[in-house]
Specification:
single chain, mainly alpha, MetI-like fold
Length: about 290
């Protein structure tokens, strides 16, 4: 039975005119991806995958995005928890700094990284004295991916932690858990869907990073050329390779979107048991 509130909301305005008015936007969003999917034959896709730049670009993208994801999760989770439980007047400035890469153009992020880690940058002389070069290396690719993707994870993780009931943490503390134990055994399991969703978004953003990587790491085949950069290069020589790379990225994005949509439903079935295990673990840890 439809709840009364849902019936009232559904009755505000006729739905068909709204759908007709919104149809151009749906078409604008859907048609380009449909065109991409039907633009090449299987033979063209196979030829594109067989191109020499495909394999190295794919492997570099997978390797660097996984490294950047680990860095983002390990450093971003405690930061997200601090933002979630901290006093707003103290966390506001940090929240603005975390969100900056989202509103900054990727080219600006790339230049900022150069001014930080380049030879003439803030840490340039120190790195040069140690014999370390960051720009135009795989390390630069990882740094660019971390900077542009971290806000997506931190925001999602902080929102997930804010939905954790404080009373559950209090129960864990009264049963003998330390602050760290309550965080790891209760807060993290309960916020896990949001953490996983944020990690998936961060990984997708890192996988598609282009502008900051191009300016900070360059486009060196086999060294810093990720899949988006390979698409850019392939457009100048062989469109089939560009389409093949684009189809791979599009397929990954679709799979991530489907997984993110399905995760809350699956988690709903496990939520009760997870909560019970967390509280039980807190009780077992009581001295």
């Amino acid at each position: 039975m439809t709840p009364p509130t849902s019936r009232i909301v559904a009755g505000v305005g006729s739905r068909w005119p709204l759908l007709i008015l919104g149809a151009p936007m749906v078409l604008l969003l859907a048609v380009p991806f449909l065109a991409l999917g039907f633009s090449s034959s299987p033979a063209d896709v196979s030829a594109g995958i067989a191109d020499p730049i495909f394999g190295p670009a794919l492997w570099l993208s997978v390797r660097t995005t996984l490294v950047s994801l680990v860095i983002v999760v390990l450093a971003g989770t405690p930061l997200a928890w601090w933002l979630a439980v901290g006093v707003p007047s103290r966390t506001r400035v940090v929240e603005v700094l975390v969100d900056l890469p989202i509103v900054m153009p990727p080219a600006v992020v790339g230049i900022a990284l150069l001014q930080t880690f380049g030879r003439g940058g803030v840490f340039g002389p120190l790195l040069e004295s140690m014999g370390v070069q960051v720009p135009f290396t795989a390390t630069a690719v990882v740094l660019a991916q971390v900077v542009v993707s971290a806000p997506f994870y931190v925001q999602a993780a902080a929102a997930a932690f804010r939905r954790v009931e404080p009373d559950l943490l209090i129960v864990g503390r009264t049963l003998g858990q330390s602050s760290r134990g309550a965080f790891l055994r209760i807060a993290v399991p309960l916020a896990l869907p949001g953490l996983v969703g944020g990690a998936a978004l961060a990984w997708a953003r890192a996988l598609g990073e282009f502008g900051a990587t191009l300016l900070f790491a360059g486009n060196l085949t086999g060294t810093t050329q990720t899949m988006p950069l390979a698409i850019y290069q392939a457009l100048e020589s062989d469109v089939r390779v560009a389409v093949a790379l684009s189809l791979v990225l599009a397929a990954v994005s679709v799979l991530l979107l489907v997984a993110l949509r399905a995760a809350p439903r699956a988690w709903g079935l496990l939520h009760s048991s997870t909560l019970a295990r967390g509280v039980r673990s807190a009780g077992e840890a009581r001295p």
